[in-house]
Amino acid sequence: MGEAGAEAEAEAAEASTSAQESDAGGSVEQVESEGSAAQRLPRWLWLLLVALVILRVGYHSAYLTELPFALATFSDGRLYEQAALDILARPPWGSEPFYLQGLYAYQLALPMTIRPWIAFGLLLQLVLAGLALWGLWRVMVARLGRREAGLGLAVLLAYPGLAFYENKVLTASLAVGTMVLVLVALARLQRRPGPRALLLLGAASGLMILARGNMLLAVPGVAVAAVLAVAPLGRPRRWALAWLVGGLLLSLGPMALRNAIVTGQLTIMPAHGGGTSFYIGNNRHARGVWNDAGGLVSGEVVHERSELVSILGIEERDEAEQAAAIGRALYRRAASEIAEDPGRWLWLELRKAWLLIGHDELTQDYDRAGELELLPWWAGRGLSFAVLLALGLAGALAMVGRARRDPGLAARWRPWAWVLGSQAAAVVAANLLFFTSSQHRVPLVVPLAVLAGPGLSWLLGGFRESEAGRRGWALAWALVLLVLVQAVWPRQRSDEPTAVHYYNLAVAHLRLGQPDLARGAFDRAVERRPDHPVILLERATLHRLRGRLELARADLDRLEALPELPPWIVARIADERRRVVGLRRMEGIVAQRAQDWSTCAVVFDELLEDPGGTMVDAYDAACCHARIGDRPGALDRLERAAAAGLRDAAHLRADPDLVSLHDEPRWAPIVERVEANRAAAGR
């Protein structure tokens, strides 16, 4: 039978099923759900949605035009930008392995073909986010009716955590969009079951996996939903699964081919395979959120690979194999530490779950509190995640009750339960297997928003039900209150902007050519974390570039006093020392040529106290001290130069700067020492 015949048969089967359900007696819920899709929204709800959309558009517009974060990348965003630029430089595959999700790199690269500006990538991201919200609205209207769909969408728009991640150079918004695409494909499959719809569902699921690798855990639920959705056709399960797998291959195949061409490895995941995140979330120092794993990683993602190669002793030189080796080594190390103390690991998993269900927004690189400081008019206040979670759980209970009273509704919703449940489980699993953060948590909004409308309707109107229905309604209220009460307990110690926020703000200002603003941000970062090596190092570099060499030396001194610095930071400190000393030496030489003897004496004395000071600095300091009449000081520095290996006795005797020292008793021994150095060098 051809595809058209299959779809016709599906429509006939669906009509027959609907007729049977109607003959059996449809419930009030069924009539309301199917009939209200054509009804108009209540005026108050329509106005609320319009107001929320206007607020969101205003926020995103201000972010793109006022904040440096929209114009300059850092941390994960810098890696994504580099990957996108690599794709643009060598289309269509690029030449480097994807250290993070490749699909997101392609999303950024697409609009950057116009101009290689990251703001173009964020603009496309916002357009895709808007389309995802529209698609979710259409899906909810078809399944729930306009009123409950409007309630669910309002709850979602009122949750500022989703808006926060829609304009960040991170994959959270892409994950949400691809999850919605799976729901759109499922709705089409239920409406017109057939090969084309199954292919679309499989392709959407593949994109969901490419957006977030943990969504691979949702595929079994999608497969069950596909089988249930085509059941009216009477086709065997393997028929549905075959078309679904075909759609998966359509999405995953190009990425696997690209990686095989570029790296020689047929894979769809980032090169490190998640090993870094797994170890960060499960090492002996972990407390459920991002951490440096006892100093294993510094948080500077650009240097993360070199840090880990050095610490873990990775020998592979090929970048892709090197990253894969890092992932394997960290998986092994994490498994070993878990086995050493399984009790602590169980406590850690419980703590991750506790962090997951709170209302605190646990951010790492982008800081919500810091953003509110930059955009004070954007209150950022709305419904907390715990409210969304409570309404979603109430909605799940409401749909279970409806399904028990209406077998027809149960049959139609069973595929949705499998997809929404598997998506939620995959997101929760990522937070428990790796570490909890707002970015990892935010994709939960998709299943929660779908259920929030029924949940809110039931909570507000369940008292009208029968006695048995009111017992379930009371249970739902108890669950909602329990979730809201526990969420009030704070999960983080402070709601002030973090040192990392100010550091990233400084980095963004630097990339935009705003050094004075960058210095202010660095200073605030150091106030909060005076022992953070990366922050101190970058501030020292800025001081050096701006000619504030004394401040640069002070930061380098503080850095060198810190224990267990990563190798790349140690190397950077040495390089900064050389640069600072070189610039300070030039200042001394300029003062010397201008016969500003007091200044040149101070400068060269400072250089003598620096680890980068040399024999020549001691000699020049002696000349300057001799010119200002400080003979003892000049002789002290000459003795130091002679001890360091000075051997040009002829120049020493003829130097006019040192004439005033010739009749000093210490002069002759110094000259003899210099001549001895020359004789020793001649041998």
Could you describe the 3D structure shown?
The protein has about 675 residues and is mainly α. The protein contains 32 helices and no strands. The protein has helices at about 5-25, 30-35, 45-65, 75-90, 100-110, 120-145, 145-155, 160-165, 170-190, 195-210, 220-230, 235-265, 275-280, 300-310, 320-340, 340-355, 370-375, 385-405, 405-435, 440, 445-460, 465-490, 500-510, 515-530, 535-545, 550-560, 565-595, 595-610, 615-625, 630-645, 650-655, 665-680. It is elongated, with a radius of gyration of 33 Å. Mean pLDDT is about 90; it is low at about 1-35.
Key terms:
683 residues, mainly alpha, 73% helix, elongated, disordered N terminus
- Overall shape: it is elongated
Helix share bin: over 70%
Q: Enumerate how many helices there are, as a single number.
A: 32
Rg estimate, integer Å: 33 Å
Tally of DSSP β-strands: 0
Mean pLDDT over the full residue set: 89
How far is it from the N-terminal to the C-terminal residue, by CA?
99 Å
- Main beta sheet, described? none
Short description:
73% of the residues lie in helices and 0% in strands. With 683 residues, it is mostly helical. The longest helix has 27 residues, at 118-144.
